[in-house]
Amino acid sequence: MSGIMEILLIVAIVLGIFMLPRLMARKPEGDLQPRDRGFRFTGRIRFAIVASLLWPVIVVFFLEPWEGHWPLFFYVAAGPVALLWGIYWVFSGFRKERE
What SS3 class is residue 16? Predict the structure, then answer.
């Protein structure tokens, strides 16, 4: 029975280490200002991310790069994705510069 007691004691110590700081932390009082959440994913960005992931998957079924068409696959699958994200990156830089 002493083995079980030792295990329970270790579990209690570990729980105390992790739970006590949370229980003892002071909550700030007063008005809380909403934090700036930074970049938010809009519907267009989410669509662009999904399209960027699906485009190479769709192209792989048509070109079958494992048959030796690797350069063509990279030009057709990765090329447009990299080009469009690069254009978006440049235009978002110009837009931030204006703000």
Answer: helix
Long-range contacts of 12-16 (CB under 8 A, 24+ apart): none
Residues 1, 7: Cα–Cα separation, whole Å: 10
Output the 3-class SS for 81-94. HHHHHHHHHHHHHH
Q: d(Cα 74, Cα 81) in Å, to the nearest integer?
A: 10
CA distance 56 to 63: 10
Decide: 92 and 83 in contact? Cβ < 8 Å.
Answer: no
Q: What is the pLDDT tens value at each position of the chain, 99 positions in all?
A: 567 777 778 888 888 887 777 777 766 665 556 666 666 778 888 888 899 989 898 888 888 888 888 888 888 888 899 999 999 989 888 887 777
Gap between the Cα atoms of 15 and 10, Å rounded? 9
